[in-house]
Amino acid sequence: MNRYGIFGGLFDPPHLGHLIIAQGVLEEFGLKKIIFVPAYNPPHKHRYSSYRVRCRMVELAIEGNANFLLSGIEERMSGKTYTIEVVKRLKQEIKGRLYLIIGADQWLEIKTWRSPEKLIRECQVVVVPRPGYELNKGILRRKGILTSHTPLIDISSTRIRKMVKQGANIRYLVPEPVLRYIRRQRLYR
Ligand code: ATP
């Protein structure tokens, strides 16, 4: 049975951390593809850029990697798009086992998500380490959950948005085409 990685997020903007994680998890767990799923109407997060803009940036970030795909599924779903609903929908469309990629920061918040137990049953959760979130501490450990060995990468979209606002150079933190897009569209000013 083919394995597919599902990588949800705001991607505002997508950064090299996202790409390093996606490639690392793909190889570590022998996945066929990684499907990037930009959040349309995130229940927990404040949205900065429009869905279209974030999708375009993901497209630019993954171009040239045939193993990375963009899914617009959240736009086709109505209302708040909870991860459990997205996973259920994706399972109807994709024949294979779904590996849901979650950063350690998000995993810590899993109890605030809708139906976390169901989510854990519906797919294989893969938690990726993130600086500041200790994966070996009890709360982050759980039977049935995989943790990846991707490197610790101290990059966040929040930091990138702040840097752009302050006029700092974000080269090498985001892929070049994303950098050019952010400049051209004058995002995060
Ligand atoms: P923000 O700073 O706006 O919260 P972010 O950098 O966390 O954004 P998201 O698009 O919200 O990026 O992240 C999508 C997924 O990738 C989440 O599961 C998040 O935990 C994970 N992730 C993002 N950056 C990293 C990183 N540097 N290390 C590990 N996981 C990460």
UniProtKB/TrEMBL annotation:
Enzyme class: transferase
Catalysis: reaction(s): nicotinate beta-D-ribonucleotide + ATP + H(+) = deamido-NAD(+) + diphosphate
GO molecular function list: ATP binding; nicotinate-nucleotide adenylyltransferase activity
Xref: InterPro entries: Cyt_trans-like, NadD/NMNAT, Rossmann-like_a/b/a_fold
GO biological process, one term: NAD+ biosynthetic process
Keywords from the named record: ATP-binding, NAD, Nucleotide-binding, Nucleotidyltransferase, Pyridine nucleotide biosynthesis, Transferase
Matches recorded under CDD domains: NMNAT
Pathways involved: Cofactor biosynthesis; NAD(+) biosynthesis; deamido-NAD(+) from nicotinate D-ribonucleotide: step 1/1
Residue intervals of the Cytidyltransferase-like domain: 6-162
Enzyme Commission number(s) from the entry: 2.7.7.18
Homology family: Belongs to the NadD family.
Function: Catalyzes the reversible adenylation of nicotinate mononucleotide (NaMN) to nicotinic acid adenine dinucleotide (NaAD).
Alphabetical list of NCBIfam families matching this protein: cyt_tran_rel (TIGR00125), nicotinate (nicotinamide) nucleotide adenylyltransferase (TIGR00482), PRK00071.1-3 (NF000840)
Protein name listed in UniProt: Probable nicotinate-nucleotide adenylyltransferase
Organism field: candidate division WOR-3 bacterium 4484_100
Gene that this sequence comes from: nadD
